[in-house]
Structures are given as structure tokens and as C-alpha cells.
Amino acid sequence: MGLWLGTPVLWTGFRRQQSRRSTGMAVVMKQPATAGGRSRRVWRQCLLAMVSGLVALAVVELSGSRDALFRASMASAYAALGMLGTTLILGPLNVLRDRPNPVSTYLRRDVGIWAALLAFAHVVFGLQVHMSGRFWLYFVYPADQGHFLPARYDLFGLANYTGLVAMLLLALLLTLSNNASLRALGRRRWKGLQRWNYGAFALTALHGIAYQVLERREFLFVAIGSAVLLGVVSLQLAGLRRELR
Q: 195-217: per-residue pLDDT in tens?
């Protein structure tokens, strides 16, 4: 598989970059079909699993909560955010270092896969933290409350709807992230769909900010989330400035 999450949307969102750096480059940077190539991917998956686990454990320890579901939700959320942010900075880093920036690499695929898996885990845990397991109340008001619209239009609703749409976008991108889809859709159309990764990241940011306000998160977690967001935006802008020179 290969999307941002498999073959992430590269930072090559601009035609100028495509003409200057991608001309003549392969659509997919393929891993050698050798035992050594497969072994490298296995070791990389193990490394990403270890990093994800360490981040999750650190968040669990820092959360200070006795609620196991809350700890699991927080741990998977911040680990997923870190992986998602990483998929969006690999492209700009290639540009800033004057390195080739193909449409797909196995590194971005593997990082993106872990981002998607952790995001899915966050959804599973997160929908059980509030409302005593009645997960539908994350999106609609209780029947005994009189509202003009049944769908939640408060901050809690905003937080949950943005998270839901972000997860759906990631699921769609993951489904399309394979060489078969790339061949069937064509490079330009496929890349256009993959750029929805930026929308998913923006929605994830709104989701996180809303929950930080709702749950009055500690400053440390606010700082971590802000650092990831600012880091991604800063590197994207730095890469853009390099391209516009």
C-alpha cells in the first residue's frame, strides 16, 4: 500500500516543483525485490513500531489519569499525530536538501501506515471515553434535549465531526495507496486525490485543538501539539520558498 499513509501525498503540490525536481523521475521509488530489500522493510516496520510504542508509553505516563481508556486514547492520538506530521515533512526535507522527491517511497508508505493504524486505534478508544459508551452521543444530542437540529453544533460536536471526517479521508487515501490504483487513475489524478492528506491534517489539528479546550489539557500536551503543527507548517513554507527562488 502506499499513500501518504502508504505512498503519502508528497509535498510536491506545486507544478513548479514537479517540473524542476520530478522530471524524468520514476513515479514510484521501488524497493529492490531482494531478501535484503525485504529485510530492510521489516526492520523499518519494527523501528516504527518501537518508536510508536515509546511515544505512547510516554504519553500514558505523562497523562496522570487513572482512566485506562483515556490514557489509551491520548497515547494513540499523540503517536498518530507524530507519524502523520512526519509524512508531511519528508517531502519538504527532500526539497531543502536538494534530494530527489519521487511521488512515492517506501519510507513514507511505512510511516503513513503506522499513522493510519494509530489514528484508527485512537477512534476506537476515544469513542468510549465519554458518554458512558454511547458513542452516537458524540455526534447527536440526547433525545430528551430539545435542539433545533439533532446533530451536535457545539464545540464537542465540532471536535468529533472533524475527527470523523479526518479518519474517513485517511481511510480513503489508504485504500487508494497502492500501485494498482496509481496505474488505474493515472499519476495526475492519483496525486490530486492524495492531496486530501493536507485536509486530513488540518481537520486533525482542529479536532485536537477543540479537545484541548474541552478537556483543559495540561500545558505540556498543548505545547506538544503546537510544536508538531508549527513544525509541519514551517517546513512546508520553507520548502515552498526554496521552490519559488
A: 888 999 999 999 999 999 998 88
CB 48 within 8 A of CB 82: no
Amino acid at 238: A
Q: What is the pLDDT of residues 52-88, one digit of tens each?
A: 999 999 999 998 888 999 999 999 999 999 999 998 9
pTM, two decimal places: 0.81
Alpha helices by DSSP H, listed for 127-244, are 155-176, 179-185, 187-194, 196-214, 219-244
Instruction: Measure the CA–CA gap between 3 and 6, rounded to whole angstroms.
Output: 4
Nearest CA to 29 out of 128, 106, 99 is that of 106
Residue 95 to residue 194: CA distance in whole angstroms: 19
Task: State whether the Cα torsion 57-61-65-68 is positive or negative.
Answer: positive
